[in-house]
Amino acid sequence: MGEGYRMDYLLVPEPMEMTIDAMRPHWALKKFDLWGDSMVIFRGPMNIKPDEGIDLKEFKRGTVFPKGDILHFIIEHFNDELEKGVLRQNILVSIAEEKLAHRTGSSQKILRWGDDLYDEDRRLTLTAVAPTLVSVKIHLGICIDADEDAGFAGISEYSLDPNELGEVIGNQYRADIRRLREKCWRMRPII
Questions:
Q1: Coil, strand, or helix at residue 12?
Q2: Furthest-apart CA atoms within the chain: distance in Å
Q3: Among positive and negative, which fits the CA dihedral 15, 19, 25, 27?
Q4: Given the DSSP bridges, would you call strands 8-11 and 38-44 parallel, antiparallel or unpaired?
Q5: Rounded to whole angstroms, how far apart are CA atoms 45 and 18?
Q6: Which own/partner contact pairs does 45-51 have at CB distance under 8 Å and 24+ positions apart?
Q7: 35: how many CB neighbours lie within 10 A of its CB?
Q8: Distance CA 141, CA 143 (A)
Q9: How many CB atoms lie within 10 A of CB 15?
């Protein structure tokens, strides 16, 4: 049996700014020497101009990015279609929902609406999926600091450790994607 699926992974210890460059192809390779499918987790503020927003519906509405500290997940899957990227984004958001509900002890308070998580009526996350020429990029940002003016809650209200949360979400996502890939080569076709 061949080697199983592997995703390079890095939890960056120092804070850094989230810019649109992180959504470009091969960003993890160029910045951190991570080859192939990769996940980079870091915390820091967003520095993306409204006209750099990826979601066209949000762009037309007037994109609002939260200020303050955010836990970022940047994922790159090569040889993927946008639809698969959206499905993987949904897996990532579901994992984040599960881990947050478990750590806060309140599954009623953490709600998923579409591809975002909410603390009652305030957004906790922002997320995007973008195709590149060679890959699909996924961004999930979980607000650490609340930004009431922009309508965002933050996980600091729950006294959660962002690095621990990032690690468990990242590990679960990588395990789920590995199992998904392995299941594809394990199944026998019906002829």
A1: coil
A2: 59
A3: negative
A4: parallel
A5: 6
A6: 45/17, 45/18, 45/69, 45/70, 46/17, 46/18, 46/70, 46/141, 47/17, 47/18, 47/19, 48/18, 48/19, 48/20, 49/20
A7: 11
A8: 6
A9: 10
pLDDT at 59: 72
* Euclidean distance between CA atoms 145 and 124, whole angstroms: 9
One-letter amino acid for residue 94 of the chain = S
Instruction: Give pLDDT tens digits for 112-155.
Output: 998 999 988 899 999 999 999 999 999 999 999 999 998 899 99
Query: Where are any strands of DSSP class E within the chain?
Result: 8-11, 38-44, 70-78, 110-113, 116-119, 122-123, 125-131, 135-143
H-helix or E-strand containing 170?
helix 162-186
Whole-model pTM above 0.85? yes
Query: What's the CATH class of domain 8-181?
Result: alpha beta
What does the domain layout of the chain look like in residue ranges? Answer: 8-181
